[in-house]
Amino acid sequence: MNVCSLWADGVILVTTAIPSVEVNRGCLVVCRSSSLSQRCTPEDLHPFLLLKTPVMSPPRCGFLSQYTHHHLVVFLLTFFSYVLLHSSRKTFSNVKVSISAQWTPTARNSILLPTWEDNRLFADAEGATLFLGALDTIFLFSYAVGLYISGVIGDRLNLRYVLSFGLCGSAVVEFLFGTLTEWLNFYNIYFYCSLWVLNGLLQSAVWPCVVAVMGNWFGKSGRGFIFGLWSACASVGNILGAFLASSVLKYGYEYAFLVTSVVQFAGGVVVFFGLLTSPKEVGLIPVEVDRDSHRPLMSDEEEEGDEDDEEEVSVGGYYSIQQPPSDPKTQAKAIGFFQAFCLPGVIPYSLAYACLKLVNYSFFFWLPFYLSSNFGWKEAEADRLSVWYDVGGIIGGTVQGLISDFLGKRAPVLAVSLLLAVGSLVGYSHSPNDQVKNAAILAVTGFFIGGPSNMISSAISADLGRQEALQGSQEALATVTGIVDGTGSIGAAAGQYLVSLIESKMGWMCVFYFFIIMVRSCSVFTGWPVAWRMANKKKNYNFFICRRRAAYSSSHP
Questions:
Q1: Membrane-spanning residues where (predicted)?
Q2: Domain regions of the chain by residue span
Q3: Alpha-carbon distances of 300 from 135, 289, 355, 529, 541, rounded to whole Å
Q4: Measured between alpha carbons, how far is 529 from 114 in angstroms, rounded to an integer?
């Protein structure tokens, strides 16, 4: 029976408790076997040389040396899964002008107008534009509802199956929507709406699954940096989608959908056959529950603990806990939706993400239109310039995640970034009619808005899904991620209508004021857990002082 794994020369890390020799899992022992093998039997262990001191990791060459090639493969597969999904989403935004022209009589020669009248969808471009906006809202609401459902499903089924089904199914729907209907000259409003509702539901299966897989492979140590770098997948997908669409748009918008859907379907097939959802699948010890993982999120104070507390150890991809493991059946049990919703920190961070995702997605949907209408720049120039917002988001998510790892806390980093985000929004609302200066201010805005958005949707969601309050349940990552991102998507869906309404009634300056209010609301929600914890600590401190005074009074009458 394989009960150990090689730790260092002559030293073995116990991976399975051995009651016969009173050796617990997670302890270091000296092995009498001279063959330094990866396998070791109980007879090879010397129980009298059991190390009682806390286990410390051996010297490492660097931060990344704790990860194996399996971690790299998982990182890349999940990263590019969402890159492909977001590139297809961006494609629809980039070809709206071409679709609108195709759905109106102006897209045809006037000689063929009577023939076209029988198949047209809208009488003018304004009607087509309104319908495209309605499709955005339909997609976001169905996506939000699907996130609540798919998160629960992902914690109960194999994450690889759910993820590959979402990728391949969404690719098929996009092919039907943008390519097949154009090839067959079949245009129907209800058919388009039905497909886009289905597309939102299928795409909602991807994000909770990829975050859950990443959470299974990467522990709390370094999670801010790893997830900050990894969460750039959405911005990279936006850039890739814009590039693919612009490359083939001259042949027709249907080919833009064809390219992205084929690539996305191929990615789903690769995920189905190549993704490892847990370290257990290759014999590695899985990441355990992060003890007090909510503290770095909700507190700006140093963590305090008993020396008997569990201590996470990682060695070249092997993770263990110094206390005996809990029942495996308990670990595999998934928690319910409402249990996950009531976990500490889930509600405030979900509401915070709803406010922040509203602002982030408003830039995603409206930025090219704002640049074109407000500054009079060509559509191609506005599309190229809008990329700088994504560039700022990529850098912001990575840098802020790294800082949060260095500090051991995420709340202070979020608070400072959101405070500076208000200033960047004020600055960008007064940006000059100069593309270089505008791009620079836009990148700064993306840094302070996209960075916190990436952190909440990835690293913080993973932290919330692996906190002590789970009481041993390991199957909450996808559910918690679905709740956080689903609530954020509801805010984003409502925000698109509000942005168009405010802009039409009061102008773009009031839109930026609305963004500032949303960012400040996000700050309030993220500060809520910190304030609650500080209030409880003050209450406990006052109670402790009263007890000390009472004890002193009784001993000194």
A1: 67-85, 128-149, 161-183, 189-213, 225-249, 255-276, 346-367, 387-404, 411-428, 440-464, 476-499, 511-532
A2: 4-59, 64-283+335-537
A3: 42, 21, 22, 10, 17
A4: 64
Would you place residue 468 in the very low, low, confident or very high pLDDT band (cuts 50, 70, 90)? Answer: low
Using the predicted structure, report yes or no on whether residue 16 has a pLDDT greater than 60. no
For residues 128 and 101, what is the distance between their CA atoms, to the nearest angstrom? 8
Of 124-128, 144-148, 334-338, 424-428, the range with the highest mean pLDDT is: 424-428
What pLDDT digit, counting tens, does each position of 119-164 carry?
577 787 777 877 887 888 888 889 888 888 887 787 778 889 999 9
Say which DSSP state 308 is in.
Answer: T
Phi, psi of 16 (to 5 degrees): -140, 130
**pLDDT tens digit sequence for 29-69:** 444 444 434 445 554 544 434 443 334 444 444 555 667 88
Give the separation between CA 407 and CA 138, rounded to whole angstroms: 41
Closest to 78 in 3D by CA, of 220, 242, 231, 238: 231
In percent, how much of the chain has pLDDT > 90?
18
Going by their DSSP bridges, the two strands 312-315 and 11-14 should be labelled as unpaired
Question: Which backbone phi and psi does 187 adopt, to 5 degrees?
Answer: -125, 120
- Do residues 18 and 11 make contact, with C-beta atoms less than 8 angstroms apart? no
Kindly write down the DSSP assignment for every residue of 433-468, as one continuous string.
S-HHHHHHHHHHHHHHHHHHHHHIIIIIHHHHTT-G
The helix (H) or strand (E) run that includes residue 356 is helix 346-375
122 class by beta-carbon count within 10 Å (0-12 exposed, 13-18 middle, 19+ buried) = middle
Q: What is each CA distance from 28 to 2, 314, 493, in whole angstroms? A: 15, 13, 53
Instruction: Name the H helices within 39-124.
Output: 69-94, 96-102, 113-117
The tokens 């795409």 sit on which residue? 203
Per-residue model confidence as pLDDT tens digits over 83-129: 999 898 888 877 877 888 888 875 444 454 554 455 577 787 777 87
Q: Name which residue leads in pLDDT, 10 or 99.
A: 99
Burial 441-454 (b: 16+ CB within 10 A, else e): bbbbbbbbbbbbbb
| Nearest-angstrom CA–CA distance, 343 and 339 | 7
- The answer to whether the pTM exceeds 0.70 is no
Question: What angle (nearest 5°) sits at the alpha carbon of residue 238, between those of residues 232 and 240?
Answer: 100
Range list of β-strands (E), 375-511:
none
Q: Which tokens sit at 404?
A: 């949060």
User: What does the DSSP 8-state code read for residue 304?
Assistant: -
CATH topology of domain 64-283+335-537: Growth Hormone; Chain: A; (1.20.1250)
Q: What residue type is assigned to position 293 of the chain? A: S
